[in-house]
């Protein structure tokens, strides 16, 4: 029994010794643990307070954003309503102005052989026409002498009373053409003046007619006075790359003074030295009458003047000595559209003959022919006849060589990196938005030429016979259009840019054709239904709002019906904005 007690006592002492060892320094450690817990609790509390404050700020910001969105929605609706009102008022005002002007010219023009002789009572009744001020710039008193055929047939459309027409009353029917924006309006005023001094009757009708229909009818109905050397302005439509199936959208031309397409200013002359007609390619023989443009020196038969390529690009004087190293601005005119003549003629010829050529722009032409054509374009006094160049690939090579050897690429050194960065964005909306912004930053010659070229390449890509889709065209024109950010890039830069250049061209080809064609139109209020302002949450829509309206003129788009081409070749329709 004692032995057991002793053993138990020894075990108890051993246990106490071990407990003492464990409790020897544990209190400071527990104190430190408590301090750490307190620090963590305070940090946690501070984070909770900051989180609550941020939640309050977020709630307030969301409330303000909701209120601003409501205001923005109302503002958008008000803007749309005002735009529609303005469009309607502008249309009514333009219609009334044209009618008043036609009646004014017909009735109250003093000293003119075409004016109708009115008595004092009739003149006092029409005195209100003199109250409107007329812009002197729009009054062109010089008129070409023409003899209208079948004039009596047009007059006979109005019913007359029985009896001799000459004894009862005399009527005068006149046709005036008013062209504003992208519209061709034919206003016809029929004025009947009784011989017995009765009241005057005037009826005016205004209708929209596709220009090519009106111009061909007019050409067939008049004879040219060969002794008259007054200048005649060609009223052709703007030639854009046509549909491969041979159809085109006929759009009326726009007077040059209104900011539209530059028209030819023809002067008639008697041919001494035989020349070739640019539209048809036939020779104009000795002693025949020909028309020659004052600005671009295009020569044509009188009956072929409607088919001369547009826009008229004045021949630039003082071209660079080394034309391979010239800047684009040296080859364009000082007024819109700023497109080199070489580009316009090459694109028109390619549109007429090359849209069924397999491998267009991929197959190279003869270097010698390309060099000769370029020398004639940039050095010659007349425009070379591209219709006589048998190899269409030589013409495509001429276009590529001209763009490739410019002193600065079409997209410029300054914006080269911006275009490449925009093309490589994974978000399509943001990429397109930055493309719009970069295009707006281009100089006008570069922007006009780029738009003209992209429209053409889009037509080429649509033609299945060429087997040149947007990807293939991007590979061909990437180095030509985009180029590099420096004049003399090192090999590593060339290697890196070669992979990125096609992406830029492919992105440009993906932009809608309406955006490109809008760069050539006159500046008026659009007649189409206005779309709602895009949401501010999208970068692309913000960029479109800020960029498209800044660089693309707004203008009318009224007549857009496609018609069959009445003449050979493919022609551009006047560019419109949807």
TrEMBL record:
Membrane topology, as annotated: Peripheral membrane protein
Annotated SMART domains: C1 (SM00109), RhoGAP (SM00324)
Coiled-coil ranges from the UniProt annotation: 58-106
Signal peptide interval: none
Domain Rho-GAP: 326-516
Subcellular localization(s) per the UniProt record: Cell membrane; Cleavage furrow; Cytoplasm, Cytoskeleton, Spindle; Cytoplasmic vesicle, Secretory vesicle, Acrosome
Ranges of Polar residues composition bias in the record: 134-143
Keywords: Acetylation, Cell cycle, Cell division, Cell membrane, Coiled coil, Cytoplasm, Cytoplasmic vesicle, Cytoskeleton, Developmental protein, Differentiation, GTPase activation, Ion transport, Isopeptide bond, Lipid-binding, Membrane, Metal-binding, Nucleus, Phosphoprotein, Spermatogenesis, Transport, Ubl conjugation, Zinc, Zinc-finger
Any Gene Ontology biological process: Rho protein signal transduction
GO cellular component: acrosomal vesicle; centralspindlin complex; cleavage furrow; midbody; nucleus; spindle midzone
Compositional bias of kind Basic residues: 144-158
Domain annotation Phorbol-ester/DAG-type: ranges: 263-312
Main location (coarse class): membrane
Name used for this protein in its record: Rac GTPase-activating protein 1
